[in-house]
Design a protein that fits this description.
- This protein has about 290 residues and is α/β, with parallel strands linked by helices.
- It has two domains: about 5-60, no CATH class; about 75-290, Vaccinia Virus protein VP39 (Rossmann fold), CATH 3.40.50.
- It is about 35% helix and about 15% strand.
- It is built from nine helices and ten strands.
- The protein has helices spanning about 10-15, 25-40, 55-70, 80-85, 110-125, 140-145, 175-185, 230-245, 265-270; strands at about 5, 20-25, 75-80, 130-135, 155-160, 200-205, 220-225, 245-250, 275-280, 285-290.
- The protein has an eight-stranded mixed β-sheet, sandwiched between helices. A two-stranded antiparallel sheet has the order 1-2.
- Helix 7 (about 175-185) links the parallel strand 5 and strand 6.
- The radius of gyration is 19 Å and the shape is globular.
- The N and C termini lie far apart (about 40 Å).
C-alpha cells in the first residue's frame, strides 16, 4: 500500500500546489529536494527580489535551462528542425494560432515559442498523413498540427477522459498531477468550432494501457507530451516506436529542464541508441526513426 499523508496548507502554498493537500511521500520529498537544488545552483542575488519561494525556484530553474542550452551542456546535439529534415527550398511558411483569449506558447518563456514554431516546421517539412499525439490537454498543439499538415492528414490525440474515470497506471510527477486536475475542469478544446476540427480525432485512455494495434507502423509524426515521469516518457516512446516506420519523426516536449520530470533522464538514456537532437533555445527534442 502506498504511504500517503497530509501536509500543511502553508507548505503547499509555498510550493505553488494549493489544490493538492495530499501527496505521495516520495513524490513530495523529491519535489522539495529538486526545488532546493535548483535554487542553490541557479539562484542569484536578483532572485531574492522576487520574495516568493515558488517564483524564486522557477526563476532559478529557468536560469539553469538557459545555461545548459547556451553552452552545449544538454547532453545531446543541438540542431534546428530544418538542419535535420532538409526542406525543399529556403522558405517555409507555417500557420500559427493567435487568439485574443491568450494561453498561447508565446509568453515570457521564449523556449515555448521556439517549440511551437519547430513543431509547425516538422509538419510543414515532413507533410505527414498520420499524426499521433499523447497529451491533448486543451488541444493547442493538435490545432497547430491540423493547420500545418496536408488537407487529407488525420491528427489523433490521446489523453485521459475528462470525467476522471481512468487514472494513470504508472507513476506521475507533482506537476503531472496538477495538470491532470486542470485538465478535468470543463472547457473547450482550442480547435472546437473551427474548420481544422474535421482533421482531429480525440482518443481517450491511459497511454500505458491504450491499444495501439491499429496504428502499428502507420504514424508519420508522433508527438509525446503526456505525463512527464520517467516511467511514462519511456512507455510512450516505446509505443511511438511501435507505431512509427522508417523516416517517421518522434518529438518530445519539455526536454532539458532540471525539474522533477523524467524527460531529460530518458532522452539521454535513449540517445545512446538513437541520434536525438534538441532544438537550440527550446525544450523540444526529436529524432528521425531509422
Amino acid at each position: 500500500m502506498q504511504l500517503r499523508f497530509t501536509i500543511s496548507y502553508s507548505i503547499l502554498s509555498l510550493l505553488g500546489i494549493e489544490r493538492m493537500k495530499t501527496m505521495n511521500v516520495r513524490q513530495l520529498v523529491r519535489t522539495l529536494v529538486v526545488s532546493t537544488k535548483n535554487l542553490l545552483l541557479g539562484g542569484n542575488l536578483a532572485s531574492f527580489s522576487l520574495l516568493h519561494p515558488k517564483k524564486m525556484v522557477f526563476y532559478a530553474t529557468e536560469c539553469l535551462f538557459y545555461l545548459d542550452t547556451m553552452y552545449s551542456k544538454r547532453g545531446i546535439t543541438e540542431k534546428n528542425v530544418f538542419e535535420v529534415l532538409k526542406p525543399e527550398g529556403e522558405v517555409q511558411q507555417i500557420s500559427l494560432v493567435c487568439p485574443d483569449t491568450g494561453g498561447t506558447w508565446f509568453n515570457p518563456l521564449s523556449s515555448r515559442a521556439s517549440d511551437i514554431v519547430s513543431l509547425c516546421l516538422i509538419c510543414q517539412i515532413l507533410k505527414p498523413k498520420v499524426v499521433f499525439e499523447i497529451g491533448t490537454l486543451k488541444g493547442y498543439t493538435a490545432y497547430h498540427f491540423a493547420l500545418n499538415t496536408p488537407e487529407d492528414a488525420i491528427i489523433y490525440t490521446l489523453d485521459l477522459p475528462q470525467g476522471g474515470s481512468v487514472k494513470p497506471s504508472l507513476p506521475t510527477t507533482t506537476v503531472d498531477d496538477l495538470m491532470i486536475k486542470s485538465y478535468f475542469r470543463p472547457g473547450k478544446y482550442w480547435f472546437q468550432d473551427t474548420p481544422a476540427a474535421s482533421k482531429i480525432v480525440c482518443l481517450y485512455g491511459d497511454s500505458a494501457t491504450f491499444d495501439y494495434s491499429e496504428f502499428e507502423g502507420k504514424v508519420d509524426f508522433f508527438f509525446i507530451d503526456g505525463a512527464h515521469s520517467y516511467e511514462y516518457v519511456r512507455n510512450d516512446t516505446m509505443k511511438a516506436l511501435y507505431c512509427c516506420h522508417s523516416g517517421s519523426v518522434i518529438a518530445w516536449h519539455d526536454f532539458g529542464r532540471r525539474g522533477v520530470n523524467g524527460v531529460r533522464k530518458w532522452i539521454l538514456e535513449l540517445s545512446k541508441k538513437y541520434e536525438i537532437y534538441a532544438i537550440p533555445g527550446g525544450t523540444l527534442a526529436f529524432m528521425v526513426v531509422p
